Amino acid sequence: MPRVITTGLALLLSALLLPGCQTLDKRDKDRALENTLHSYETAIRWSYIRQAYGFIRPEVAEQVQLPTGLENIRVTNYEILEPVSRVGEDAAIQVILVRFVEKDRQQERALTDRQLWEYDAEAKRWYLMSKIPLFVTPPKIRTSPLGR
């Protein structure tokens, strides 16, 4: 009889602890997302745009060519338009408004950054799946209406 009670108690404890482990995993994943979003915001907000490319998967980042002129950009505002929302267990979306100044023109511009984040269980970190926003705008070419 005591053996049945011990086995039953062991099964009961296992059943109670297993969901607790899943809760800890979810909490760790949520904390990792929060830390990643804060670090990304810091990189963009303080105009360390090159560092933002470190949030992309390494195999994708190797293929990305950094735009020129990033040193000419000064970010003036990073505003969360839509707070992070989870899409399934391993994906999240956040929408940001970034205001920045082109230093040489002293012209303020704004862009909307729709971020898609994906969790890599093996690496235990979140990666940015959407592209880094393009801060450098191509110069406008003015042509004469007469073709000159």
Please give a structural write-up:
A 4-stranded antiparallel β-sheet has the order 1-2-3-4. A hairpin with a 4-residue loop joins strand 1 and strand 2. It has a single domain, classed as NTF2-like, domain 1 (Nuclear Transport Factor 2, Chain: A, Roll). With 148 residues, it is an alpha+beta fold. 35% of the residues lie in helices and 30% in strands. It contains 3 helices and 4 strands; from the N terminus they run H-H-H-E-E-E-E.
Task: Summarize this structure as a short list of keywords or feature phrases.
alpha+beta; Nuclear Transport Factor 2, Chain: A; 3 helices; 35% helix
Note the gap between the termini. Answer: 101 Å
Number of strands: 4
**N-to-C series of helices and strands:** HHHEEEE
Given the structure, what is the number of helices?
3
Main β-sheet description: 4 strands, antiparallel
How many structurally independent domains? 1
Low-confidence stretches: none
At the third CATH level, what is the topology name?
Nuclear Transport Factor 2, Chain: A
CATH class: Alpha Beta
The CATH homologous superfamily corresponds to NTF2-like, domain 1
- Morphology call: elongated
Kindly provide the radius of gyration, computed on alpha-carbon positions and rounded to a whole number of angstroms.
Answer: 23 Å
CATH architecture: Roll
Look at the structure and give the mean pLDDT: 85
Order of strands in the sheet with most strands: 1-2-3-4
